[in-house]
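Example record for the data management plan.
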Amino acid sequence: MSNKKIIIMTASVGHGHNKVALATKESLLKENKNLDIKVVDFVKVIESLFDQLILNAYFKIIDTFPSWYHYIYSITSKMSKDGKVKDLFAHRYKKKILNIIEDFKPDAIIFTNPFILTIVGYLKKIGKINIYTAAIITDYSAHNIWLNPYINKYFVASKELRKELINKGIFEEKIIVSGIPIHKKFYDECNIDQIISKLDIEKKLPTLLVMGGGLGVGAIEEVLDNINLIKESLQIIVVTGTNKALKEKLENKLDKYRHKIRVLGFVDNIHELMHCSDLLISKSGGVTVTEAITKKLPMLIVDPIPGQELENADYLTKAGLGILINDIREVRDKVQELLFENNTVYKEIKSKLNDINIINSNEIIAKTILNDTKTYKRTSVI
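Corresponding structural encoding:
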């Protein structure tokens, strides 16, 4: 399979889809360094002002009107796996996507976002292409937009999600419980003494990791203000990601906090930060949840967005691997309870995390796709 070509189709709506795409590309090349892999970002494919306005409105609704987003999410979750609404969406973009496929001539197409999956599924439906396709679902539940009878393989995070897809009409032989692929660094051992020295933090103090970028400026300040009410000694690592305004604002008021706080911007060592932390305070994106589980780090999920994040939080809490709070004002009491007053709950979560047998999702997905494409009977583009 030395000359095989693969397209990985993602979309920059949040960082999770792109992270999974890059992790998948890396794992495929590890299995076969001669593969020709192209990553396509659907957001960059969109060129018209109208489409960009729709995308911007989507982000605005999530940030400002989460209840509206929940309503849209609930309504669209009732779509059938081969319905007219999906076909109408796919029809709008089919020419652009078909041109990409015709130019590159891939032997397989992999999806880490469902929007572009809908378009390629439609192209298979109307007989324009017959190429092996695989979907990597990046959350712990599946919106119906992921469902498509023309997808050859589904890779899912859990047995529960596999059962959900079967109940929604996806043939069970198409579904592999692989977990969500993440960067290989999360599977590696870390030297905690080196990390602590590099971060200039105390080894014996309880450490909170606050993943800040997605929570927004006001929310992070409120989280820190609540934690500041805790009298027991602890230390906090805040990661603001690409949110430069948040980083600058927090750095300018560090002297107002009683606890030691390290404010970091965009970093590439989240695996190390998780390794030396005792509790993660964050939203519940599918990739973040998977990274925390892999590093055996209990999560305190704060005010998740209705939809995928809330369903991820529901999975995590039902499994006993984290705690959900819907009001930021509860952060102080919950941290106090978990780490200081009565840490029985914390120990139970930690025990369940330690009992999980971590599988290398990247390897499972890469080997399955490469084996499947050896036997898939492909016809050329019509």
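Summary line stored alongside the record: The mean pLDDT is 86.
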